Amino acid sequence: MFSKQELRIAAFSTAVIAFAATSGGALAQKKYDTGATDTEIKIGNIMPYSGPASAYGVIGKTEQAYFNKINAEGGINGRKINFITYDDSYSPPKAVEQARKLVESDEVLVVFNPLGTPSNSAIQKYLNAKKIPQLFVATGATKWNDPKNFPWTMGWQPSYQSEAHIYAKYLLNEKPDGKIAVLYQNDDFGKDYLNGLKDGLGAKASMIVAEESYETSEPSIDNHIVKLKATGADVFFSVTTPKFAAQAIKRLAEIDWKPLHLVVNVSASVGGVIKPAGFENSQGILSAAYAKDGADSQWDNDPGMKKFFSFLEKYDPDGNKLDASVVYGYGAAQTMAKVIEMCGDDLTRANVMKQAASLKDFAPDTLLPGVKINTSETDFAPIEQLQMMRFKGDKWELFGDIISGEMEN
Which residues form a coiled coil (predicted)? Predict the structure, then answer.
């Protein structure tokens, strides 16, 4: 026979076990929004596979390959990624059409890394109204870091203004009497850099002696370059997408104009810009980086880049390690995978945004040592540091310290 005390303990133990079972069930309860199930997560994407910015199309192809790798390894928390990517030809009206298709027909959980400032500007209000994450946007416009007004939109790369602040700091130190000519794309992308440069130069913004804009529909920017040379400027700031950046490098050589030449990070790709423009024409060009350069042998034994190279070999044999856009696509996809992993079994859109805003010192394989991803509820700018670099021989050489592009108050 059991004593009263033993019976009491047994009853208490049974209650504890029953409570643990019910609360465990509550903890393990899976939560899904449209686009997620026990077996699949639908991730939407929009890229310019055609049109004036088609050089960036390899980003989408790299991301597809990365998610193929994830799926081959069993998925994320047991779920496979269904990556649905569409072409918008770098056209805002087409981007709107594709965003609607992803949300209303394909019923994706998130729209991840859609590319281009004009395209993302066109779809931002729609996605926020629908409460669909517009996550890790592939553009550095400053406006993606506005959690108060656009809680469903978050950038990924350093903002264009942050990057321009770094160039301004460099010019103020190294060429304080320089005369700067700026060629910029006539949209939010171009204007963000121009504003960032003026902001960074502060009281010395008068160093800018010429501003020339171009449209992406123009076949060539040769005339703009000739016009800028005539101003007598000795610094040339090229705020251009890859096709036009390569044109500018070639044209400077043709007309024998040798200013200090700065090219923005999004067009610093060795494979996508420098090689087509000619290594001999590109010596001494300056830019800034936050990611490792696949063309640089210094990273050959880097653990992160070894993973990247083996990924290319196995899952993306057509991916060019010299193309910065391939490096970019890998890092962005790895960040998206990290967020999905952090979501566990709560695959609601609200939780996706909550986890994306909770990244702490996350370092994708391809980021420069010391550059880390940090986000919070009030800071939707994941990467805010860069390092200056100079093109020499057939590769970029980093110099100086990792610099934050944030303005000092």
Answer: none
| Alpha-carbon span 297 to 36, nearest angstrom | 41
Structure tokens at 354: 């909550």
Q: Does residue 22 have a pLDDT over 50?
A: no
State phi, psi for 377 to the nearest 5 degrees: -60, -25
User: What CA–CA distances, in Å, run from 41 to 65, 322, 347?
Assistant: 16, 31, 9
The rounded distance, in Å, linking the Cα atoms of 225 and 249 is 10
- Distance of CA 297 to CAs 189, 338, 371, Å? 32, 28, 19
pLDDT at residue 19 is higher than 70: no
Q: If we measure between CA atoms, which residue out of 279, 371, 293, 290 comes closest to residue 327?
A: 293
Confidence of residue 29 (pLDDT cuts 50, 70, 90): confident
For residue range 371-387, what is the model confidence (pLDDT) as tens digits? 999 999 999 999 989 99
Question: Which domains, from first to last, does the chain contain?
Answer: 40-158+298-378 (3.40.50.2300), 161-289+389-404 (3.40.50.2300)
Angle between helices 117-130 and 188-201 (to 10 degrees): 100
Among residues 268, 183, 180, 181, the alpha carbon closest in space to that of 222 is found at 183
Checking DSSP bridges between strand 40-47 and strand 80-87, what pairing results, if any?
parallel
The overall longest dimension of the chain from CA atoms, in Å, is 106
Q: Cβ–Cβ contacts within 10 Å for residue 141, how many?
A: 22
